[in-house]
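As described in the Methods, two query proteins were run sequentially through the folding procedure within a single session, without resetting any intermediate state between them. The first query and its resulting structure tokens are shown here.
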Amino acid sequence: MAWIKLMSYEESAGRLRELYDRVKGPDNNVDNVMKAHSLRPHTMEGHSALYKTVMHHTGNVLPVWLLETIAVYTSLTNACDYSVKHHFAGLSRLLKDQARADRVYKALAADRPEAEFAGKELAFLLYAKKLTRQVGVMEKADVDALRAAGADDGEILEVNQVIAYFNYSNRLLNGLGVTTDGDILGLSPPNTGKLEDWEHR
């Protein structure tokens, strides 16, 4: 499951158990991405708060399926199998159209987002690719291109945060060898304005 020790739900106690209870899914299942923090529970608290606000908060205006698409593309760019599997499952669930989900995945995996996306959505994906692969050469023109495609500054911030979060989590996962073994793919917390509303469903 990982190259370092991951504490199971049954082994957990104290603050770790409290956090596991917050993020668990059915049958006390805790995703390995959260278990990766189990030796330093305070880091799980920060991670879970960031994930909730970036992906599943009512303060966001972009549709969650689009945020999941950006998550999948960023994770494909980083070759993070864990995040690709989890977030493609979530994207498929949200789209409720497996044929469309499969077309989206095929386009993203081939590094050809233009095969399925246009306009603002495509601009977001191109921004995700550059920010992930070429962070040192980002420039104002990259943001100007998003505005020209119809994005407002709040939407740009939302997309930037999704990309930044997945670059962090992809490195956490790949750097510690975390796998999806034992995880339930595609579950997520509900979209609410409450950080404590985190239980995976």
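Immediately afterward, the second query was submitted; its sequence and tokens are:
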Amino acid sequence: MPVIKLHIQKGRSEAEVGLLLDTVHEVMLSAFSVPERDRYQLAFEHEASHFRALDTGLGFERTQNFVLVEVVSRPRSRTEKLAFYQGLAAQLEEKCGISTSDIMVSFVENTDEDWSFGAGVAQFVTGEL
């Protein structure tokens, strides 16, 4: 049920974007214990001139490979979030060659009545999910 939004600079191939999406999904499955078909992802590609990602003074060297991962979800525990951060950094570095200093994650949490998966119904509220 999480909606995952990836913000990246233009220039990656379709295969690279696909691998990013697949890797994020694998980490989400592990960290959040959601069903495999619970997959809602969007990749937004931005012109380099429209993209600013500094390091908030933490000393990270940001590059054109920077990825901002936005997770829109029902509330997750601290344990789940930390597992997601750690798993994502490790897997994106291993599988996609993205430095851990080029990965930023932000959670936007909401409640059951904030979701409708179709048919004008709030399935979490009705008990369908």
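The mean pLDDT is 97. We note this only descriptively and draw no conclusion about the first query from it.
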